[in-house]
User: What shape does this take?
Amino acid sequence: MRVRLIVLALSAAVTIGVSPAFAQPATGQWAVGGSIGAAGPSDPSLQHGLEGAGNIENYVTPRVSIRGQVGFTSWDIVGRHFTGSIAPLYATGNLVYNFEGGNIHPYVTGGVGVYHYHASESGTQDQSDTKAGVNVGGGVEVFFSRSAAFTGELSYHKVGGFSSPATTFNDGSFWRFGAGAKIYLR
Assistant: This one.
């Protein structure tokens, strides 16, 4: 994960030096993006996992957008009397506020979501549980052209407990960090 952060920082530094400050979303503009990163569950018996997400966004004003995001991850079960994995799939709807900064646009975000936990555990039949949750976070977009940017985001997803065939996990919450790219559609 440290290597990813270093690569993202170096990419941002190079991009800042070569791109003019002309990136500003327009009202009604759409954008699509994707990211890959890591997700760290709050439950101590679940191990961190690789995470991926895709999003679509519409700008209500040049600073405010509505974003839909779908993401997934997988966590191994550790320290229990059984083995297996939990594979969350989530869909969120967020409000995003973007700050102007020339090529660099920091932002904050928050919203609600649906979190679907699929459990595969040894000696049991697979089972799924779906819960509602909320999320908050922030990030940065670093523009390298008029319609494309590198992205980095850290968010916290607060979700209650969920059931699996062998147990109940008391906390489905997790942190996620993703680095990716975003393209603005004209």
